[in-house]
Each structure stands twice: as structure tokens, then as C-alpha cells.
Design goal:
Layout lengths: L28 H12 L4 E5 L6 H12 L4 E6 L11 H17 L5 H12 L7 H14 L4 E6 L8 H15 L9 E6 L36 H15 L5 H12 L3 H14 L15 H12 L4 H12 L1 H13 L10 H9 L2 E4 L2 E4 L2 H16 L3 H9 L4 E2 L2 E2 L1 H16 L4 H20 L3 E6 L7 E8 L2 E9 L3 H17 L4 E7 L8 E7 L2 E7 L1
Parallel strand pairs: 1-4, 2-3, 3-4, 11-12, 12-14
Antiparallel strand pairs: 5-6, 7-8, 9-10, 10-11, 13-14
Helix pairs in contact: 1-2, 4-5, 7-8, 9-10, 14-17, 15-16, 15-17, 16-17
């Protein structure tokens, strides 16, 4: 016997759209009201253009229901149209008409609209051009009592077809002539690729790179990421059902620190905390996984999974080499690159959801993307890397009683670095020095700990790496030597940063190109803080 939906336990969903009755999800009421007020009620045609698994379909489904009392909403998905249907106008028009009628039958209609649908179904086998298709839809819009809103999801799955470009041109014509000809009150297209500039999708033949006619679209500037308060609201609902004893505010804040509110990443972390960590021995016996340490463990589990979101990311970075190079330079070298949406690699990174603008510079969209990409880059570099091999050989020396001896990690790295790279020129070391330390560190903490580069301190002279090993954190500042005064300022900055992390001890690794430098390890005491400084 099937259980009633009300009796089923809600869960965190990471596949397709979310439903409030089945899944724990953030409340979308404010977002839906803003979209309606700013766009739909004003009769705007617009595109919801966001990265993979950013909640586009969930938002569209919720919006369709939200608009139902006052609008006739035709909700379609272009994945229902196969490649063969884009062969010519008549095959596309026939496929589109069938999808359109199927969607129309799902909405409540008045008697006149119902008669119109019957008449249209009788003419379903007619061959139509695009012009005739739009005339056909104009008749539906004229017959409908309520204004008609057209929504098309996954619209960019068709965006490398000339027929689709022609379809957009027809929509544009309807928008311009809507005072004289009945047409859609509002049109909402959703996808990853920005169809306002189709040449980004039309690769590689130059003659096939079209400019989109979709220049009548309003700018969609609604934030679709989850805020800390939205995440906390979702967690409060979960806590009411499960009574874990978590601090919902603190957990929401920590999840946001890793995800920056990227919807899929929020959901998958919560899913791991709810379903996977309780199966681990260390969280057995009722120990709550919904803690800072549990979230760190969930992130480690997430980064070891082969997820479609990361598969898509790797694919795009393989295609767009300039975008990959830019991200590598930000992560490895701390390069501060000015943000400009007119640079192709930048606009692509924003469109895919990989990067964002932060204080006028390019930044990775969230910490999990940083960690995942850094892990991938380091793993690729590890093949044939001498310093990585040294880390593998030394690994067991640094783990004492399940604790990481970071003092010895720096001491051994200085020794290996001097042996392997001391003869390389300054520019080589300045460019790759930080990468070498991360290569050495990875096999030491791999499988047990995490590390990430702290975005707030990253620049071309200084980068802070935060290492989390079995719940204990280490802050290691990697810096290029620029004189004693700069070094002392760096020590002071590190001391302040340790205060932020509530740590008494920190580490500094200086790449010094002064011929009279003193290679080795020394201890510095600043007030109540101790800094272990390594110079190579």
C-alpha cells in the first residue's frame, strides 16, 4: 500500500525541481513576488540565465503556480523537442505546437478558450511555417480571458540552430507589434547560455556565429542564490521534524561560508549531513553531524564525489582554455584581475556561474568551487612532480597521534624546495612557488583533511592557506619576500588573522630571492601569538 505524501518524511533534494510537500527547501515567496512585480506584471520579455543546477526549474515551477490566479501560464521545456525537429520550419512548428497544446491543456480555461483548443487540435496535422505558428498562437492569446505568459525552460538546448534564431526573431516581432496584435503578455526563457549573444554557443565555424535578435529582453537582476537567513529558515523546518539539537543560525552561516548560497551546493551539503554522515562511526550514537566539524566533513565527502555539476565545469574549462588559465592564475598566483563583462573569458565564467565580481575584481563564486578546482589542478600537476612525490614519501612522519605536525611539514618542505628548485630563476619561483607548497601538502592531508585558499587575503604578494585536519585548523601564509618592513607587516597581518580564527599559532612561508637570505625555520612571538616562519 502506498503511503500518503503527508506521511512521508521530507528530504533534501538534489535532482530536478524541488516541491515544498516533499523536500526541505528555502521559501521563494519574496523572489516570486519580485519577479511578478518587476517583470511579469509589466509585460516584460526576459531570460533567467544562471549556471547549472542553480534552481532555475524550481523557480519556474513555483512561479507558474504563483501566477495561476491571474494569468494563463504556458510552461514548456525545450528538451521535449529533439534535434530532428529543428531540421526546418514545419518540423519545428509541429513539435512546438504539440508541446504548447499539452501545456495549455494543463491550465484552467474558460469555455471560449476550450472551444479554441478543440479547434486547434483538429488542425494539429496541418503543416505550418513559423509565421503561421505565431498567427495560431495569437489566436489563443486573443481567446484567453486572462493574459497569457509563456515560459520555456532549457531554452539554450536549442540555441545552436538557425530555426531557434528565427523563432526568437518572431517573438521579438510579436513584442514590438503587441499593441496591435494579440500576443503573449510576458515571455520567460530559462537556460545556462545567454541567448542575447548566441555566438558564444555557435562554435567553431565563424560563418555560423549569429548575433541574437533577443535584444528586447529586460535585464533579469533578481538574486537567485540563498541568503544565510533563507538557509536558516529551511534548517529550522528540518529541526522541527528531526530534533538534532543543532544551532540553526551557526550551521546556516557555516554552510554559506562554503557555498555563497549556490542552491545545489547548499542542498547537497545538507543531504550529506542528513543521510551520509550519520552512517559514519564517528557520528554514531546520536552525535550531531550538524556542526562546524560535520560541515567540514560533508564538504570533504562532496569533493570526493563525481557530480554532474563538476563534470560540466571540467568540460567547459577544457573547451575555454583562456577561462581555465585565468582561474589558475587567481588560485595559484593570487593575481588580482579587474572585472569586465566585455572580456569573453570573464563573461563566460559569469554565465557558467564559476566566477563573480567582488570589489571590482574577479573572484571564484564560492569556496567549494575553489577547493574543487584547486584539487583538480593539483592532481593534474602531481603526475611527474618531484615535490609531490616527496610529500607522499614523508607523509607518515607528520601524523602523530592523529595530529598533523605542521612545524615539521614546513621544515621538510624547505629542505626539499632547496634541493629541487634552488637553481631556478626568480620569475619561475615567484610564479610557481605557492603551487609547489600545495603540491607538497596535498598527499600529506589527502583523504583526511581539507585545505582552501582564503579569498580575503589573496593577492600577488600574499596568500593564506587554511588547512583543516581532523577538526584542527592551521593557517599558513605564503608570501613573496619584499623586504623586512613588508615582512614585519605580514607578521602583524597574520597575527590579526589568527585572532579571527581563535588560534594562538600560525605559519609563514616566505619565498625570498635575496642572495644573502637565511634559509630555515625560526619562531616569532607577537603578543600572545606564535608564528613559525620558514624561508626558502
Amino acid at each position: 500500500m502506498e503511503r500518503k505524501m503527508a506521511d512521508m518524511r521530507r528530504y533534501f533534494n538534489t535532482e530536478a525541481q524541488c516541491e515544498p510537500e516533499e523536500h526541505y527547501m528555502v521559501r521563494l515567496d519574496d523572489r516570486l513576488e519580485k519577479i511578478r512585480r518587476m517583470f511579469v506584471d509589466r509585460g516584460k520579455y526576459f531570460v533567467i540565465n544562471r549556471g547549472r543546477q542553480y534552481g532555475k526549474t524550481t523557480t519556474l515551477c513555483a512561479l507558474a503556480e504563483y501566477l495561476k490566479p491571474d494569468y494563463t501560464v504556458i510552461f514548456m521545456d525545450f528538451q521535449g523537442i529533439g534535434k530532428a525537429e529543428f531540421e526546418n520550419e514545419t518540423t519545428f512548428s509541429a513539435a512546438f505546437r504539440k508541446l504548447f497544446l499539452r501545456a495549455l491543456e494543463k491550465v484552467e480555461t474558460d469555455a471560449e478558450s476550450t472551444r479554441e483548443i478543440v479547434n486547434l487540435k483538429e488542425a494539429d496535422d496541418m503543416n505550418m511555417t513559423l509565421m503561421e505558428l505565431f498567427h495560431w498562437m495569437s489566436g489563443i492569446c486573443a481567446a484567453a480571458v486572462k493574459p497569457v505568459v509563456l515560459m520555456i525552460d532549457e531554452v539554450d538546448s536549442a540555441s545552436n540552430n538557425q530555426i531557434f534564431v528565427d523563432f526568437l526573431a518572431m517573438l521579438r516581432g510579436c513584442y514590438i507589434a503587441r499593441r496591435d496584435t494579440p500576443t503573449f503578455h510576458s515571455v520567460i526563457l530559462a537556460g545556462v547560455y545567454d541567448i542575447k549573444n548566441l555566438k558564444l554557443k555557435m562554435r567553431p565555424d565563424e560563418e555560423h556565429q549569429y548575433n541574437s535578435p533577443w535584444n528586447i529582453a529586460a535585464e533579469f537582476n533578481v538574486d537567485m542564490s540563498f541568503s544565510v537567513s533563507q538557509i536558516e529558515g529551511m534548517l529550522r523546518e528540518y529541526e522541527e521534524d528531526n530534533h538534532t539539537g543543532m544551532d540553526t543560525a551557526a550551521v546556516a552561516e557555516e554552510i554559506y561560508r562554503y557555498t555563497s548560497g549556490y542552491p545545489y551546493l547548499v542542498s547537497v551539503i545538507c543531504k550529506i549531513l542528513d543521510e551520509e554522515l550519520p552512517e559514519k562511526e564517528e557520528y554514531a550514537g546520536g552525535r550531531c553531524a550538524w556542526t562546524k566539524e560535520g560541515i567540514s566533513e560533508a564538504v570533504k565527502v562532496l569533493l570526493n564525489k563525481k557530480l554532474p555539476l563538476f563534470d560540466s565545469m571540467v568540460k567547459q574549462l577544457d573547451i575555454y582554455k583562456e577561462l581555465r588559465t585565468m582561474i589558475e592564475e587567481i588560485l595559484y598566483q593570487g593575481r588580482q584581475i579587474s572585472f569586465s563583462p566585455y572580456v569573453k573569458s570573464v563573461s563566460l565564467g559569469v554565465m557558467f556561474g564559476f566566477i563573480k565580481e567582488e570589489n571590482g575584481y574577479i573572484a571564484l563564486s564560492n569556496r567549494i568551487f575553489e577547493m574543487g578546482l584547486l584539487n583538480m589542478f593539483i592532481t593534474e600537476e602531481a603526475v611527474g612532480s618531484e615535490v609531490f612525490s616527496c610529500g607522499q614519501r614523508d607523509r607518515n612522519r607528520f601524523i602523530k597521534g592523529a595530529k598533523l605536525d605542521m612545524d615539521m611539514v614546513l621544515e621538510k618542505f624547505v629542505m626539499h624546495f632547496h634541493d629541487i628548485y634552488s637553481d631556478n630563476d626568480t620569475s619561475f619561483i615567484e610564479k610557481y612557488g605557492r603551487k609547489f607548497f600545495l603540491l607538497y601538502l596535498k598527499p600529506i592531508i589527502n583523504g583526511t583533511g581539507n585545505y582552501y585558499i582564503e579569498a580575503r587575503t589573496r593577492d600577488e604578494r600574499r596568500t593564506d592557506v587554511v588547512v583543516d585536519y581532523l577538526g584542527k585548523q592551521f593557517v599558513v601564509e605564503l608570501k613573496i619576500w619584499h623586504g623586512n618592513e613588508y615582512n614585519e607587516r605580514g607578521e602583524s597581518q597574520l597575527s590579526d588573522y589568527l585572532e579571527y580564527f581563535h588560534l594562538d599559532k600560525g605559519y609563514m612561508l616566505s619565498f625570498n630571492f635575496n642572495k644573502k637570505k637565511e634559509i630555515g625555520i625560526k619562531q616569532i612571538v607577537l603578543g600572545k601569538k606564535t608564528i613559525i616562519e620558514a624561508v626558502v
